Amino acid sequence: MFANTLYINMFNNILLCTHGTDGAKKAEAFVFKKKESVPDMVVTVLTVLDEDWRQMTGDDWLNSSKTHTTFLDHVEEQMNEEIAEEWLRMQKQYPLATQAKFIQRTGSIAETITKTAKDLHCDLIVIGPWCKRKRFSIHSTRMGLRSTMKNKELHPLLPCPLLIVP
Amino acid sequence: MTHIKEQTPTLIMGAMLLVYGLIAQSGALLPVVKYLHTHKTLDLQVTMCLIVGCIALVGALVNSVRKPGHSNLDTFILQPLGGIVLILVMAMLIRWYAEPLMKIISQSLQPVLGFKIYKVLNLNYVVLGILAGVLLTNTWGIPKFAAPGVKCARFVLKMGVIMLGARYSFAELAKLGVYSVFLVGFFVLGTVFLVLWLGNLFKQPRSMTGVLSAGMGVCGVSATVAVAPVVKAKSAEMAYTIGTILSFGIVCMFIFPTIGKLAGMSPVQFGAWAGTGILNSAQVAAAALAFNAVDIETLKVAEIFNITRVLFLPIIVLVLATWFGKESGHKLSFKTVVIDKFPVFIIGFLLLFFMSSIGMFSPPSHYKGKYIDVSYNDRTQVTQEEWETLNKAMAAGEFSGLTPKQLEAVTDLIKQRQIAGNFEDRNNKKEFDHVGRARMAQLEGVLAAAKAKQIELSADVKSAIKHAVKQVHKKSKTVVTLTDFMIWFFAFGLIWLGMHITKKSITQAGGWPIVMGVIAGITKATLSFFVVLWLIKDVVLN
Question: If we measure between CA atoms, which residue out of B457, B151, B161 comes closest to residue B309?
Fold first, then answer.
């Protein structure tokens, strides 16, 4: 308990990365619980729109570039709606989340997280743990693409410490 | 030379192509290409390498010294040059080296394995090209310098289909068109309604069943991309659906040719089955060429089915838009739903077909770019060895199983050393031509009977008759050139296809879409297999 309080007090500007998965929800719970004990802590909630959506048109060669653009615009619009819903859910669940700053960026996940942390001068990045996938479960629900970051891609880019909430 | 660093890969490829072209021109590669049995393509290798090498070097140098602009030259040639050269180099390596090597290795492994890997896995240039694309994109990824050029492959594939238009006759298009409209109409609508019914049964959202039904029913990811904004599909629904369609389609692309060969399907039957049962249209072309990469009969049939299916896309989009609009209150214009979704390249295909049909590429007497010339000509004679083989076979009574008309045709072939009419009728061109063509038909019948094992002929005799028939078939040079270009365009486009099969897009498969997709996909593939076997006969292209 003492150790927890000690290390979280060391950080004032936290970047919470979430995309609504079970793992990310653990990170949300951890950060907003800690904010109760450290009210001055600045929390920025980041949701990344994976740039790999561009690859999701797969081997489609029949459609015109206009149809492709319409599709990608629809994806962006849909993701914006879903992300807004997710932020609303967070604000309802954690009253302190209303004090947080919510931002959305598009790009490769590891690069976008580290770049945002650098731009906002964050001193800690918080993410959720890897969770067992429910790919073939017919009850599985998720938002957007199933994306995972590789440590070897993320770690060399880190501008500040990274906390993975278990 | 401010941009020289970005242009280095293109410069290197261009220089390597030039060096290769010059070495090939000097004849130093002759032993290698003879070993690989690609010596007949040596002239083409030299020409292609020198032309592509020069263009790559000049283009890369221009790109190095000036900032890319927005002119047509920049957009369509200079910016995509790196990617175009990369895919061309891959296509050349595969067609001239990887495929022949695969054949040699397969043959040498046959005594150990008991079968030819090359034949069982259909490892021709098409499949190898797709595998090379898959390997590149999932290991190093598509290099940055090549990204703009890789996008051009969509246009190149469309050009391939447009050029294919020159290879159809009115009769073929009419016959195949009727079959394809009935078969595709039944299976497209059937699959769409099956998925909608399954969605209702499993109580799934309309947006998800709408997008999945189009993908499974019409033309895979292309239909999904077209329909998703119309039915307002959610992000996860699109990801699940695209992942499911890509995974199922890839499995079909590799399994269909093997099943087709095991079932003894003819090129026409396989083309019809692939065109109906495989989801993505690029995968249809890939499977058709994997089944038969030398003769384009399978591709011709598959593409007609493919085009028919694609023509159903605006109709299905309209149906789904109406169905979804009723529920959600969204209103969409006819232009947004139908006109914007119409595949314009099909107009190009039809244009080439009409140009070919009115004799712009070959005289009107030509059929499928070929014509039959049974007039006397030294060049249409069989060789001395072939003539002796036929003579000996006749003396030995090898032709005893032939019908009287077939025997008469063989006797005349030996007598005149070529397929022709009667010498005494040579001034009556109509009669001379008629008799010559009838003899050619009889000789083709002899070959068919030998193939069906109704009669027994030695390999040398069959080869001699085959050569005699081939000698009177002349090909239009324009059509031959168009076909060669078309094959290269498909090879180019299918490497691009492989580059878009990413692990990430495949692993999106899951949820209810995979359950409903697999049920619908397997049902469609299985039913269409039996219907095609029952309905489609070889006579379609005769």
Answer: B161
